[in-house]
């Protein structure tokens, strides 16, 4: 679970606990008050019984009966005294005289009882209200020295006239007893409140520290640009396809650090970032993805990506940086792209931009390139997870392009070309242009190669009269895992291995010809043949003819295409290659024969074999079944 959501959950739980504790506290108070009200009602009934007794003994005329009969007065004082319990501090009867003064008629005190007709000064207006309204009342004691909680005033009424008031004083100890009925819960609630207050304080402190920590990991401390973590979280909240992207890298910044020092280099990077931010809107985001590499995302509705990229490139290229007494300048390489609608893989976008940035650097740096992927498929097919799933589900097949005899146009061999099968449309095939670089050097590449080898040998077994060639990168031969896979399949299918040709692709110069020669020898042990692809361009040059034991040369298609633009010069070069191949005993194949004009010139040059769309497109092997039978 992500930290922000975890914090919200914890805050929510503690908030609910606080509400629960407040409710519990409120419930305890309400319960205590209810208990007190219930006890007051019991006291009222108690007072009612006393009044009934007094009225019965005095015949309804309490004052005259007590005045005329002192003995009855003493008797009733004793009765009131008998009604006293630990809950009731005092019980007495008051009469209001003509002057409005209250006087004692009866006093049930156990000690120092007040004499008859002694004046009593009430401290509450409730006495007068009860006397007038003839309704029971409660008088709360204020700072009483007699430890009284409250006084219950019960009117003694006869013939609709208030004869007297019966006063029952409830003791303070009784109130404490009622309050203490819920004291364990009160203590528990108090402890919970203390715990929750401390927990909330700690959580706030942790949240603050986490906020400061997030600021440090979401924003680059040197430049103030955002970090990769910020970028990931940003696109967890926003749609990727609503933005366009730019990747910027400062070329050879190591030289700046070496020349001016790391402190000066840091200052230049900070100034560089400020220059970029000055050209971006607030809704655009600048992310530092590596030392001098920066990633920019810009809303599509703000500015056309080409205009912004051109503007940034010109500004950053011309900008000067003052460091000490010197003025430094930077060169930058940039790649930008319009993110296609429906795109959701940020990693795929970054991978494509990184590939194009490398292209810019390989062409001399200090330049930019803008991509415009036409559909989500262009992006989806570059997604490593998509490719991995396709390989796991064995959604891999080979198309076969014929290699024909130039003079007769008879098919003598087929080149197997790998394709992935689209997940949603099994008739749609994905070319290696999309996925090969993504999986190169990974276990997925080995898995794909295994499937291609299985397909090629299956085809050789199914059609005994054909030959098949498959492509191998020279790096594949340097890989022990790849060589184990190839030799295992060659040994397992040794009866058809002599009809398999390995076309060697090379993207860098061979450093150890002896090692490569030994690898070729291993492959040829089973009767397989070796073809050098794209001969005549790049690293595939004449040096191969001296040091390597090969069988076939495939002339680079770009060289063949020059027959359209520079036919005379191109023919001279092709004639020299044809003569060398003949002298060394190599088969010679012209690639990319795309039309009749090139075909006729290849035929005229006596190049033995040809391959290209004019002679046959890559198709399932079954499409050429009638030719195979011939």
Description:
The strands form four sheets. The chain has an eight-stranded mixed β-barrel with strand order 14-15-17-18-19-20-21-22, surrounded by five helices. Strands 3-2-1-6-5-4 form a six-stranded antiparallel β-sheet, sandwiched between helices. The protein has a five-stranded mixed β-sheet with strand order 8-9-7-12-13, with helices on both faces. It has three domains: 3-180, 2-Layer Sandwich (Beta-Lactamase); 228-380, Reverse transcriptase/Diguanylate cyclase domain (Alpha-Beta Plaits), CATH 3.30.70.270; 397-629, EAL domain (TIM Barrel, Alpha-Beta Barrel). It has 630 residues and is an alpha/beta fold. The chain has 23 helices and 22 strands.
Main beta sheet, described?
8 strands, mixed, barrel
Whole-number average pLDDT? 86
Residue share in helix:
40-55%
Task: Please give the domain count.
Answer: 3
CATH class assignment of the largest domain: Alpha Beta
CATH topology of the largest domain: TIM Barrel
Report the C-alpha radius of gyration, rounded.
51 Å
Number of helices: 23
CATH architecture label name of the largest domain: Alpha-Beta Barrel
Any idea what the shape is? elongated
